[in-house]
Write a structure and sequence with these properties.
The complex is a heterodimer of chains A (308) and B (339). Chain A is 30% helix and 25% strand. Chain A has 308 residues and is α/β, with parallel strands linked by helices. In chain B, 54% of the residues are buried. The chains are: A alpha/beta (308), B alpha/beta (339). At the A-B interface, helix 3, helix 4, strand 7, strand 8 and strand 9 of A face helix 3, helix 4, strand 7, strand 9 and strand 10 of B.
């Protein structure tokens, strides 16, 4: 039995470490100075997929949709142990909300081919929506389990009546629900969204860093050709493919997508306005950290009819 | 040509037949939104033997309940519930659909939005109906979906100008639930259900769910501690003060991450939103993620060593000092006054 997994990963601005300089005076965010990182829960999702591969065999494919810079993230996936990576990148995919993103991702997944499991982090720290995973599962017409904290078992499915599905395996997972947990027995193919506590991502393997640090995506090769007139794109790509260092890139032309459903055009939600968070900035009464001060505070709170 | 619906729908989340609090909060909000839109407020209730719960929605303004009652629907399950919602939304095309931003709501809403190609905004903190100008075009009575973004550093207003159906999830405790003093019982429309084969794709082997014992939302006094307390043993002072004042204990995200206090007591954007009579913030700097969850408190007392901590910008009474020294004095003074 071998299990093929696809992992959806995203490069995100490190919103957890926002310093004063990141906020511009007008209250908007200066994305340029925020470091771009591997979305933490996506990294855990990749770890879980790799653990399943270690135990059951199979292939792990990481895919991301994003700007050319997102190939950095795919190299990190290769360092951790991904067998294959895909960059889905096109200007016409830019500005996508979760619906347009899930549409393109689902078409890319159909193109990439057979899989038993799809993994994603529960949510990305830049938007915190947790929507792309379930929206993608719906478009692929497969079930999903969200907030997964552990994979308990994967087994061949012996029950005849359930074998109508193309995939013969079942998976047992534990996931969080409101105020508790559930253990589910699920058919594959299945999409799972993974929470932070599910695993600790493995460190990069030195051997793999050496092997893949020169892996390049199409746009990166294009840039090399631009900067060096001795290089030809087709030859260069051929060479990178032969050396197993080519990060496969899918653009709009490579996918059977309706342009009207991609990017900004295909996004029903729009940002109408952005406000900086304005502090209430009200006056407050200063209380001394002394016995007298605290007596005064308690008197005040009694006047406010909170105590007494 | 079919007339465009102005109805507002609320997905009623039930656990063992009991309605989730957030669902009633959404009904109260939905009631106002439906009035603004001159539409009806409809509650969508899926479960088993939940007619009583269906009745209880009228008190919060529901005009009609779509009830889907079947033994196989007792517990939430992604495939069966999303299938039902997909069909209903496709058939009736409501103008607005609201879900709680719970684990269940966040599992279900994206599937329904994906299927019906509707706009969906997660974790809204406010919802309004307004007519606006966007890209030089005028839009009448859009749903303004207001939410913190970018780790809570900005507030974004999201709109769904072109899609016929506007969907949003809303966190528990953000909206107020206001039972109506006068109301009339509406209509319960039962919708038949045939279990489909897709239900077998996910089978529940074991399920553990308990009512949260922590009820921060209804506490009138909350004593909250932050990372500034320094250690879990210092955090005992927070428990002591809360005990003396008859309040509940809470913490900031930093305190939860440091292991001082369990997540269920976290106040803020990724925790609970509270509006107590008194909120005492001890060693909490007051990052906006935290303020988002407590700034509606009636009175706020802040204790912090850093005079520039943002918590002092929103508090009513500020004490510059080390919480571990101030709290014992507070307890002593309180005992002395009220003995």
């Amino acid at each position: 039995m071998s299990i093929n997994s696809i992992v959806l990963v995203k490069q995100v601005p490190d919103t957890a470490n926002i310093s004063g300089q990141v906020m511009k005076p007008d209250g908007t965010v200066n994305r340029a100075i925020l470091p771009a990182i591997f979305n933490p829960e996506d990294k855990v999702a990749l770890e879980i997929a790799l653990q399943i591969k270690d135990q059951y065999g199979g292939k792990v494919t990481a895919i991301t949709m994003g700007p050319p810079k997102a190939s950095e993230l795919l190299r990190e996936c290769l360092y951790m142990g991904a067998d294959e990576v895909f960059l889905i990148s096109d200007r016409k995919f830019a500005g996508a909300d979760t619906l347009a993103t899930s549409y393109v991702l689902s078409e890319a997944i159909k193109k990439i081919g057979r899989y038993n499991l799809i993994f994603a982090g529960r949510q990305a720290i830049d938007g915190d929506t947790a929507q792309v995973g379930p929206q993608t599962a719906e478009k692929l017409n497969i079930p999903q389990v969200t907030y997964v904290e552990a994979i308990l078992d994967i087994s061949a499915d012996n029950s005849a009546e359930l074998s109508v599905k193309s995939s013969p395996q079942r998976i047992k997972v534990k996931h969080r629900i409101d105020g508790g947990y559930e253990i589910l027995d699920a058919a594959m193919p299945l999409l799972l969204t993974i929470i932070k506590d599910a695993a600790i991502p493995r460190p990069f393997k030195a051997r793999r860093v050496i092997a893949y640090k020169n892996a390049r995506s199409l746009s990166e090769l294009e840039k090399m050709v631009e900067e060096n007139s001795l290089l030809y794109l087709d030859q260069l790509r051929e060479e990178y493919i032969n050396r197993n260092l080519y990060i496969q890139t899918l653009t709009m032309d490579d996918l059977p997508v309706d342009p009207e459903r991609c990017g900004l055009a295909g996004s029903p939600t729009k940002v109408y306005k952005i406000d900086s968070v304005v502090l209430a900035g009200g006056e407050h009464m200063q209380i001394e950290p002394t016995k007298d001060g605290l007596n005064k505070l308690i008197d005040k709170l009694m006047e406010d009819r909170i105590f007494g | 040509m079919t007339k465009k619906s102005n109805d507002v729908w609320v997905f009623i989340e039930q656990r063992s037949g009991k309605g989730a609090e957030v669902s009633f909060e959404l009904l109260s909000k939905g009631h106002k939104l439906a009035q603004n839109l001159a539409g009806k407020l409809k509650a969508i209730l899926i479960g088993y033997q939940v007619r009583e719960l269906a009745q209880s929605t009228f008190r919060y303004g529901a005009d009609e309940v779509y009830l889907i009652d079947h033994p196989e629907l007792q517990n939430y399950s992604t495939m069966s519930y999303s299938h039902i919602m997909n069909e209903l939304v496709t058939k009736y095309k409501p103008r607005v659909v609201l879900f709680g931003a719970t684990a269940t709501g966040r599992d279900l809403a994206p599937r329904v939005a994906s299927h019906t190609r509707s706009g969906l905004t997660a974790d809204c903190t406010d919802l309004k109906i307004d007519s606006i100008q966007y890209l030089r075009q005028k839009y009448d009575q859009l749903l303004l979906q207001i939410r913190p973004a970018f780790g809570g550093n900005i507030i974004a207003t999201i709109i769904t100008p072109e899609a016929p159906i506007q969907m949003a999830t809303v966190r528990e405790g953000v909206m107020e639930n206001i039972p109506l003093s006068t109301y009339s019982a509406g209509k319960i429309t039962e919708i038949p259900y045939e279990p489909g084969s897709a239900n077998q794709l996910l089978q529940i082997l074991e399920r553990y769910q308990e009512e949260s014992k922590v009820n921060l939302k209804s506490a009138s006094i909350i004593v909250a501690g932050g990372y500034g307390l320094g250690s879990k043993s210092n955090f005992r002072l927070i428990h002591e003060l809360a005990h003396v004042l008859g309040g509940e204990v809470a913490g900031s995200r930093a305190a939860v991450d440091a292991g001082f206090i369990p997540h269920e007591r976290q106040v803020g954007q990724t925790g609970v939103t509270v509006r107590p009579k008194l909120y005492i913030a001890c060693g909490i700097s007051g990052a906006i993620q935290h303020r988002a969850g407590m700034q509606e408190a009636n009175k706020i007392v802040a204790i912090n060593t850093d005079p520039d901590a943002p918590i002092f910008d929103i508090c009513h009474y500020g004490i510059i000092g080390d919480a571990t020294e101030v709290i014992p004095k507070f307890i002593e003074a309180y005992r002395h006054k009220l003995k």
